[in-house]
């Protein structure tokens, strides 16, 4: 521990920007910033990356992404075993090797200061449903600097209400399997075209306030959404 000499760091995290070691999820290194108690990783990200931080938790082999106070998610590490699989928590104990493709993806997320939609992030936002995704009907992923819609159509097939406003999403995609989706909020994003909503058979309300929809003819694609009211 960098604060209490001799104390063991149970959840050590390494900043992948500057290489500094920190205590993650530990009371010993908490700081108060702007009247709020924050962990050492959040505090370090504010000084090292202007609020954007990327850390490797070495004992459970998982990447922690932070974007300001209170915004962050876990991200798959760029290390794979011989079978091409990650080993979160190092439960299997197989040797892991750096995957260049995964590393490049992680680097892109950091450079663009964006947060990816991961299963871990969705679980964090599903506390009201005991973090269960298969039965999740409503989730809020707003103001997270998300750049792409993904994962949701695979792990949250029961979604009825989805909040994605105030992000950086340029394209509507990967929602076609959400057959029960009734309300989709995409206000304050970077969307230029209305598309890929044909599979949302139950869609009743779509919010695209303050976007950049230039192809007005693309709105005609909503004609197949017979339940759409506004």
From TrEMBL:
Pfam family of the protein (one): LRR_8
UniProt record, GO biological process: protein ubiquitination; ubiquitin-dependent protein catabolic process via the N-end rule pathway
Pathway entry: Protein modification; protein ubiquitination
Domain named E3 ubiquitin-protein ligase UBR-like C-terminal: residues: 6-111
Top EC class of this enzyme: transferase
Keyword S-adenosyl-L-methionine listed: no
UniProt catalytic activity: S-ubiquitinyl-[E2 ubiquitin-conjugating enzyme]-L-cysteine + [acceptor protein]-L-lysine = [E2 ubiquitin-conjugating enzyme]-L-cysteine + N(6)-ubiquitinyl-[acceptor protein]-L-lysine
Similarity section: Belongs to the E3 ubiquitin-protein ligase UBR1-like family.
The protein's name: E3 ubiquitin-protein ligase
Source species: Paramuricea clavata (Red gorgonian)
Species classification: Eukaryota, Metazoa, Cnidaria, Anthozoa, Octocorallia
